[in-house]
Amino acid sequence: MTQAAPNLDDLIANPDGPLAQFLCFSVYSTGLAFNRLYKPLLDRLGLTYLQYITLIALSRRDDQTVKELGEALFLESNTLTPLLKRLEASDLLTRRRDTADERVVRLALTAQGREVLRKARCVPEEVLEATGMAVEELIALNDQLKALRGHLQAGAR
């Protein structure tokens, strides 16, 4: 038997607070908690969280296009371009025009970018410890969140 979705009045009247039953708020506030956790870990590397995940995404495969990277990170070009320029200015990646199509920009990590990632190897372990959850629980939660994201994206089309 499926439970009826609560209406807005029921959510507002919740004794745990008006936002306690909003899944979107739980996801949002968890994201903020992750940001607070990551900040000191990445500050010591001179990176923001977006810079960190960008370097990780590039470490999987050099010579990605800006478009491919944007799709992988769910970022629009107006957010991605300034981020990439800052990483290039810090000598962590290179940007170059594709020889076959000059409209396409290709990206690659520099040696310094790879060194920063080498120094960041302890970050996932520190984050795992801070969650207080088992790896298996986090994998299951991550799978659920990815499935939810897929459903939401499909519904937004």
Strand runs, count? 3
Calculate the mean pLDDT score and round it: 91
What's the CATH H-level superfamily name of the domain at 30-121? Winged helix-like DNA-binding domain superfamily/Winged helix DNA-binding domain
* Biggest sheet details: 3 strands, antiparallel
- Give the percentage of residues in beta strands: 5-15%
Number of helices: 8
Strand ordering within the main sheet: 1-3-2
Query: For the CA atoms, what is the radius of gyration?
Result: 19 Å
What this model shows, in words?
With 157 residues, the chain is mostly helical. The chain has a domain at 30-121: Arc Repressor Mutant, subunit A (Orthogonal Bundle). The chain is 62% helix and 8% strand. The chain contains eight helices and three strands, in the order αααβααββααα. The chain has helices spanning 8-12, 23-43, 49-60, 66-73, 77-89, 111-119, 123-131, 135-155; strands spanning 64-65, 93-97, 105-109. It has a three-stranded antiparallel sheet. β2 and β3 (105-109) form a beta hairpin. α2 (23-43) crosses α7. The longest helix has 21 residues, at 23-43. InterPro entries: HTH_MarR-typ, MarR/SlyA-like, Transc_reg_Sar_Rot_HTH, WH-like_DNA-bd_sf, WH_DNA-bd_sf. It is found in: Cytoplasm. It comes from Novosphingobium clariflavum. Keywords: Cytoplasm, DNA-binding, Transcription, Transcription regulation. This is MarR family winged helix-turn-helix transcriptional regulator.
Q: Tags for this entry?
A:
Arc Repressor Mutant, subunit A, three-stranded antiparallel β-sheet, 62% helix, 8% strand, globular, 157 residues, mainly alpha, 3 strands, DNA-binding
